[in-house]
From TrEMBL, chain A:
Pfam family for this entry, one: Fer2_BFD
Protein name (Swiss-Prot/TrEMBL): Bacterioferritin-associated ferredoxin
GO terms, molecular function: 2 iron, 2 sulfur cluster binding; metal ion binding
Record's keyword annotation contains Cell division: no
Positions of the BFD-like [2Fe-2S]-binding domain: 2-51
Organism: Thalassotalea algicola
Cofactor field: [2Fe-2S] cluster
Keywords: 2Fe-2S, Electron transport, Iron, Iron-sulfur, Metal-binding, Transport
Family indicated by similarity: Belongs to the Bfd family.
TrEMBL record, chain B:
Cofactor annotation: heme b
PROSITE patterns (UniProt xref): FERRITIN_LIKE
Organism of this sequence: Thalassotalea algicola
Residues the record lists as binding heme b: M52
GO biological process terms, semicolon-separated: intracellular iron ion homeostasis; iron ion transport
SUPFAM superfamilies: Ferritin-like (SSF47240)
UniProt protein name: Bacterioferritin
Family the UniProt entry places it in: Belongs to the bacterioferritin family.
Sequence positions that bind Fe cation 1: E18, E127
CDD domains associated with the record: Bacterioferritin
Domain of life (superkingdom): Bacteria
Gene that encodes it: bfr
Length: 64, 154
């Protein structure tokens, strides 16, 4: 789904940045994507997507 | 007619939700239209118009209660990238909105504002009907598979 409507950025793009670039915060993400730069409404959801991706990733590591 | 600020604030909260809904369904409708799924376009377009009518009722009621309807505030839109995700986004939006309206109804009831309560009940009825419609779509998607489901939406 679209997380940032202003810039048309999806949850998949954010997840990819977390998994491939090791992004861990909105500040780090902003260096890769032009997110939360217009109205800012998406900041909360962006943080959630980052957090959930990190949690998912670490769960998989434990299992593996 | 002066009413307490709590009720006006709550009605404004429902208004924000409806204003968000207008835009979410309008955009989803036109995304479907762009893909040629006219059934889904029609449904979402009509839902958006219904939300507009509901927003109108809320605006008039808030003015009647001598409050200021907040048309500036808008919630976050949840826009999907493909049909099942779009339905899912709408579904979760509807469930959150339903809770908001229920809280508003409970408040109006406790403050004995029965006219606002009845208006909100009407709105809730419309929203629940749409929840039911989405559930039907999700069931059909599961039973028919994505391809056949989408074929029926042309
Ligand atoms: S939705 Fe991301 S900046 Fe507006």
């Amino acid at each position: 789904m679209y997380v940032c409507i202003c810039k048309g950025i999806t949850d998949k793009q954010i997840k990819q940045m977390v998994l491939e670039q090791g992004v861990g915060s909105i500040r780090e993400l902003k260096q890769q994507l032009d997110i939360a730069s217009q109205c800012g409404t998406c900041a909360k959801l962006t943080q959630q997507v980052i957090d959930n991706t990190i949690i998912d990733e670490s769960l998989f590591k434990d299992v593996g | 007619m002066k009413s307490n600020t709590e009720i006006v604030a709550m009605l404004n909260k429902v208004l924000t939700s409806e204003l968000t809904s207008i835009n979410q369904y309008f955009l989803h409708a036109r995304i479907y239209k762009n893909w040629g799924f006219s059934q889904l376009n029609d449904k979402c377009y009509k839902k958006s118009i219904l939300d507009m009518k509901q927003a109108d009722k809320l605006i008039e009621r808030i003015l009647f209660l001598e409050g200021l309807p907040n048309l500036q505030q808008l919630g976050q839109l949840s826009i999907g990238e493909e049909t099942p995700e779009m339905l899912n986004c709408d579904y979760h939006f509807q469930l959150t909105q339903r809770t908001t309206i229920q809280q508003a109804i409970a408040l109006c009831e406790s403050q004995q504002d029965y006219v606002s309560r009845d208006m909100l009940s009407d709105i809730l009825e419309g929203e629940e009907e749409h929840i039911d419609w989405i559930e039907t779509q999700q069931y059909q998607l599961e039973q028919l598979g994505l391809e056949k489901y989408l074929q029926a939406q042309l």
